[in-house]
Write a structure and sequence with these properties.
Length: 93
């Protein structure tokens, strides 16, 4: 068996080592949970931000970023649903 602490391993050697220990629970440490400190930044045109801020206030959302996140999540869910529906229809055809 390859000991990863011995020297710098190639990608293939690392893969071999991981695959060999994949089923051995004692070979693994406890899971590490990482919390992203800062989200991705996105540049939006000023007029779009103004319109979004107006709509956020209309929906009584004080935090424009939170409102935009919610709207983007909803839109992504709609798009994914439409994609899956189209994929199913194409599979039947």
């Amino acid at each position: 068996m390859i000991d990863p602490s011995e020297s710098k391993l190639t990608e293939a050697e690392i893969d071999e080592f991981i695959i060999a220990e994949a089923g051995d629970d004692s070979a693994w440490d406890e899971p590490v949970h990482v919390i992203r400190e800062q989200g991705a930044s996105l540049t939006l045109p000023a007029d779009l931000v103004t319109r979004a801020a107006f709509l956020a206030r209309l929906h009584r959302e004080e935090d424009l970023g939170a409102w935009l996140t919610k709207i983007i999540q909803e839109r992504i869910e709609l798009e994914e649903g439409a994609y899956l529906q189209a994929k199913r229809e194409l599979a039947v055809a």
